[in-house]
Amino acid sequence: MNVTRRTAYLSGEHRALLGGTGLSSWVVCVLQFCIQRFINFVIKLGFGVSQTKAIMTLVSGIPMGPPRLPLQRASKEFIDNAEAKLKSLGSYYDL
Questions:
Q1: Average pLDDT, stretch 40-57?
Q2: Is the pLDDT of residue 25 over 50?
Q3: Where does the signal sequence lie (predicted)?
Q4: Quick one: three-class SS letters along the chain?
């Protein structure tokens, strides 16, 4: 049976995701799925050096500093939208 990761995730067939039987395989796939959703969301918002620095700061908690000139910092709207998306996916991380 050929099951895609997304189909397996959505149907709850976590064992088919990586061919594993343990919880760790399922957790890894859920995290991968959430990260893919987040990256797709951020790319749709517009993604460049400034946005990369903003995302790295959000995810790591380490200030990445401003981008080199002539680039501008990521907009407050971008950061707020990205942070909201991360929080909305956060329930998957609390496994």
A1: 88
A2: yes
A3: none
A4: CCCCHHHHHHHCCCHHHHCCCCHHHHHHHHHHHHHHHHHHHHHHHCCCHHHHHHHHHHHHCCCCCCCCCCCCCCCHHHHHHHHHHHHHHHHHHCC
Q: Whole-angstrom Cα distance, residue 17 to residue 6?
A: 8
The pLDDT of residue 42: 85
Predicted pLDDT of residue 1: 43
- The pTM (predicted TM-score) of the whole model is 0.62
CA distance 83 to 74: 13
Q: Round to whole Å and give the CA distance between 40 and 29.
A: 16
